[in-house]
Amino acid sequence: MKITLSFGGGGEETNKLIHNLFYKNFSNEILESAEDAAVLNVNKKIAFTTDSFTVNPLFFNGGNIGKLSIVGTCNDLAMMGAKPKYLSCSFIIEEGFDYADLEKIVKSQANELKKIDAKIVCGDTKVVPKGTCDGIFINTTGIGEIQKEGISAHNLKEGDAIIVSRDIAKHGTVIMAHRYDVETDTVSDCKLLWEEVESLIKNNINIKALRDATRGGISAVLNEWADASGVSIEIKEDKLKIDDDVIGLCEIFGFEPMDLANEGTFVLAIPQEEANKAVEILKEYNLNASIIGEVKAGNRVILKSPYGSKRYVDLPKGELLPRIC
Amino acid sequence: MSDLTLKDLYFKFRNPDTLKALSNEIHKLAKNLKEELYIMEVCGGHTHTIMKYGLKQLLPKNITFIHGPGCPVCIMPKERIDHAIALSKQEDVILATLGDMIRVPGSNSSLAKARSEGADVRPLHSTLDVLKIAKENPDKKVVFFAIGFETTTPMTPALIESSKKMGINNIYYHINHVLVPPPVKAIMDSGEAKINAFIGPSNVSVITGTKIYDFLVKDYNTPVVVAGFEPVDVMESILMIVKQKLSGNIKVENQYKRATTYEGNLNAQKLIDKYFETRDFRWRGLGDIPNSALKLKDEYKDIDAEVVFKDILPNEPIDDHKMCICGEILKGLATPKDCKVFAKGCDPTNPLGSCMVSDEGACNAYYRYDR
Known about the structure:
The complex is a heterodimer. Chain A is α+β, with helices and mostly antiparallel strands. Helix content of chain A is about 30%, strand content about 25%. In chain A, a hairpin with a 2-residue loop joins strand 2 and strand 3. In chain A, helix 3 (about 65-80) packs parallel to helix 4. The longest helix of chain A has 18 residues, at about 100-115. By secondary structure, chain B is α/β, with parallel strands linked by helices. In chain B, the strands form 3 sheets. Chain B has a 5-stranded parallel β-sheet with strand order 2-1-7-8-9. The interface between A and B is large, with 27 and 44 residues.
């Protein structure tokens, strides 16, 4: 079955779509009360974020646009020390989109929500004429209860340790490989990160800054932090964990792993004396968690090679294009 | 050869201990050099390796790199990029080109901008992807904007042959393939440059062989080492040059024996000769150089986009910004940091001159890694 314009018309077909697909999968009282707006009970300080998802291809090794739309927004909340609670979800669907694909997307959204007990409490669906959108676009907005206050990109001080939660560049590599028709078994790191963050908080780790390294990769995160806090960040190249397949594909395309997107990998800044404890905690989730460097005086991101040379790491350029030769 | 794995290529040619050992050996021998060494790495790929791995920091003070003109994107004059943009704006045209070319600015736009204004521009990973695009769009004219040095040149005639075999008739070719030896000769003949050694790109010589550099030894008594692109390759090549200088036995040496020979790939050379002939070309930063590029032979004018679309192609030469010193940098007379507009008005998102344009340009590499 294909999605037709009538599915977004607000009439019978829309109703069917809402009941048979969305209510069934996202089932919760607030959503199913079907009022004009969701009414929420929130007692704590909340974090609030939104993100729109457009990915080509829609289905990739390790996930799809649906999983991404939950993981992306929930991870942004987690990075502020907030436990994801309530989400909105809007679909813009191209006429002629496969119903079975939509169902797969919705099911993986529901699957992620279950993992951290978060709920989609309101939503919207629009169907647009063929050619006016690329398959499906999803927007999710989320709020979460803050469990630890004060996490900020402005907090870095000389001497702080910089930690990465796992090996880098998986998501960006998978997407590039799919886009340029290169076969790969590599799987995106797309994953909810609240569990790891909660574990750090529960163990009283003094999290100063926390950011998931999505578009722009860890290069972007480190540059943003250096800029916001007015510091230099020195990274040891041999401490960065990168999978062999990722290295291989990056070699083929001429990409820099530090510039590539992740969807389940974060960078953490904490006082040096807590670094080992934090890495031990993170290793329970991924053995590649590692201290990659430390904060220094200055205003740049610097990469140190194991043979004694140094270079700057810059913000990556906008569009990733494969090299010529 | 067959025992080499990807991991060997990646890790062993970047091995810290090997790099340290090579650095020590170079430091030791270079003490005995009678003159300072100014080594031109012809290719932008080598510039990138040198800057990315901080190799300058591993060399003694009497060895200096001079960054050459071997970046196919950087040396493309603005008027040729304007060609690509004009072609992409034709109603019935799909413009396909490799990688970086998309973001290179012409006189007042770029292919990326043209695409945002509705032009159908396709970045390619592989030249042969053009076949698929042409097949899927039989009512369109697909123009392949071909760029690159000898390394990428053979893929263009391979595309022509494949399309003929498959009976695909809607592909046109805008040829911007350029050659390594002519600009090198032009730089040496200019008399200003203080270059006294070269490292040549291995990927070019995989196609052409190392024989293309014989003239540098014969006419200029200058050592050449054809080098791979990993940091160990580059450092080993520097050591080979130092040894040549010390022994006085000046020659063309092949460091990249794992894939390069003296003669090169004769099949590829034959294929290139079948379709192409040389032409004069205006190099961004270096000016007009005779017989320094390729064009389709007249018998293939039916598929030559420069002939087929000649009415819409602008042809005024366009100079770089007055403050830009790319020409001096390419000749080794200045470094990016000598330029008054470097990182002040000229940067990768708004390049005033050629060397800032692509990842492989000298100014771009300095901007990224050593600003």
